[in-house]
Amino acid sequence: MSDLPSRVEITEEGPREAFQIEPGPIPTEDKIALIDALSGTGLRRIQVASFVSPKIVPGWADAEAVVGGFAPRPGVEYTALWFNASGLRRAMGFRDRLSIFGSVTVTASEAFTKRNLNRTQAEQLVAQRANIAAHREAGVVMERVSVQAAFGCNWGGEVTAEAALDVLSDAMALAKEEGCDIRRITLADSMGWATPLRIERLVGAVRSRFPEQEIVLHLHDTRGLGIACAAAGLRLGVARFDAAVAGLGGCPFAGQPGAPGNIATEELVFLCEEMGVETGVDLPALLETAHLAERIVGHPCPSNLLRSGIRRAA
Amino acid sequence: MSDLPSRVEITEEGPREAFQIEPGPIPTEDKIALIDALSGTGLRRIQVASFVSPKIVPGWADAEAVVGGFAPRPGVEYTALWFNASGLRRAMGFRDRLSIFGSVTVTASEAFTKRNLNRTQAEQLVAQRANIAAHREAGVVMERVSVQAAFGCNWGGEVTAEAALDVLSDAMALAKEEGCDIRRITLADSMGWATPLRIERLVGAVRSRFPEQEIVLHLHDTRGLGIACAAAGLRLGVARFDAAVAGLGGCPFAGQPGAPGNIATEELVFLCEEMGVETGVDLPALLETAHLAERIVGHPCPSNLLRSGIRRAA
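Predict the joint structure of the above. Result:
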C-alpha cells in the first residue's frame, strides 16, 4: 500500500523565501540569527540567501552580509539561489561557506514564464545552455533539473502531468546534450496548484521516465493542501522535500499578496515523525525557531502547528 | 489503490463551533446572517447552535434567538447540539426548524473525560443509559455513536486504534442493549491528534468490526494535518465529514487558546473537487461566506484557501 521512506532530507528555505517577499526591511542581524537558530535544530540543509538584483528584490540587497555573517555549523550544508552569471559570481565569493551546485531551471507554464521572465518556454529552455556554460566556466556541477509551476499557475491554470513531463524531458535532453550529470529533479509547486492525486500522477510519470533520478518536492500550502501533498509524496517514497520554517514565504510573482507560502517545516517534520519517517530534526527546537521567525517578520505566520504546539500529553 | 466516494456529505459546524469559543460577544443577528449565508452555498447540513448552559458557554446564551431567527431553506437540514435532558428539551422547542436526532457519546481518553466531564470513562458510558432514556421519552431516535478524542488528547496523549475501538465497541453494545438503531459512527479528533496513518488504522478497524455503519470524520486542523487526514479518509471511501467555514472553532477544553480549529469547509470542498468527489457546494460562494465569517469574528481565521482564493487561471 505504501512505499514510505525510512528517512527524509529537508532543505530549509525559510530565510531565502521569507526575506525576498516580506515587505518591511529586516535587519541583517535578524536574518543571521534565524539561520543560526535553524542550524541548531538538526536541519542539515539550509538555503540562506538569494543573489539577485537588489533592484528586483530589495530584501536581498544584503545577501553578502548575511552569507558572510552566519556561523557555519559542521555537518550543515548551506546553499543559496541565483538566476544568472552575475548571481553565480557573487555566490562563488562564498565557496568556503556555501555548497554550490547548479540547476537547469524550466517552467511548466507558458503564461508564468512570460510573466515572470518575459520569455517563452522555448526561449527559457535555450537560455539554459548559457546557464550551463556559465556554471561550467565556474567549475560548478549542474546537479538538478528544476521544474517551476509543475502543477499549475495562477495565470495559465492547471498543468497536466503530461505537459510537465514534456517540459522536464526537454530539459533533461538538453542537459544530457550539454554533458551534465543530473542526479535530482525538483518538482516545484510555486503557487499551490498541487493536490494529492496530481502529486501521484506527476511523481509516477517522472519516476517511470527517469527512474535513476531522485525526486525533490517543493510544495506551497497556498490553498491548504500542502501537507496532504507531502503525505502523498511520502507514500510514494519521495525522500527529499523543501520547506520553510513557520510557513514563511510565498511566490512574489503569484499576484496573491498575503497568500500562505511554503509548507511549514515543523508541520512536515511532525507529519514525518507521526508516519515513522526519520528527519533528524528536533521538533521542539524547530518550533522555538518558528516563533523566532514570526517575531522577526513581525506578523503571524500560517503554520497551524506553531499556533498549537506539539502538545504531547501533559 | 483507492476507494474514493463519488460524493461526500459535509456537515457545516462553523456557527456552533465558533460561537462557543470566540471570546467577544457576537451579535445574534451576525450569527443568523452567517447561517443564512451558509445555506446559500449548497451545503445541505448546518449545525446552527448549542443548547448548553449559558453559565458554561456564554456564547450560546442566545441559542433560542438564533435557532428561531434563521431563514430555513428548503432542502437544508439544520441541526443543533446538546449534552443533557435540559438541552434536549430546549432543542425540542424547535422541532419544526431542526432535524433532531440523538447521539450516544463516549470519549476515548480517560484524562479528557475527567477534565471535560468530571467523570471516568466507565461513568460516562453508564450515563449514556440516561441519555438514551431521555431521548426515548422525547421520541427522538438515537442515530449515532460519537467517539470524542478518538485519536488522542492533550492530557492523556495518543489513543491507539485498539483503545478507541474498545470504547466504541462498549458504546455500540450498550446502544444495542437499549434497543437503539445506530446507523453512523462519528470519529471525532477533538484536539488534532489524527494523522493520515492513524486515520487508516482506526477507520479500517471500525469498518472491520462494524461494516454496516457509516463512518463520519470530525477533524481538527490543530497541528496542520487536518486536510491530509481528510484526504486519507476519502481514499478509504469515507463519505461524511464535519467541517467549519474559515476553519472557525477549536476545542474549548483543549487548553490551547488560539489554536486552529476544525478543518476549513472550503479547503475540504476544494480537496474533494480536485479529487473528483462531488460536494454540491458552490466554492466561490463558500469563500465569500468564509470572508463574512472572518468579519463577524473580527480576526483572521486559519484557512489558507481563504487567504489565497481559488485562483483558477486569470
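The mean pLDDT of chain A is 93.
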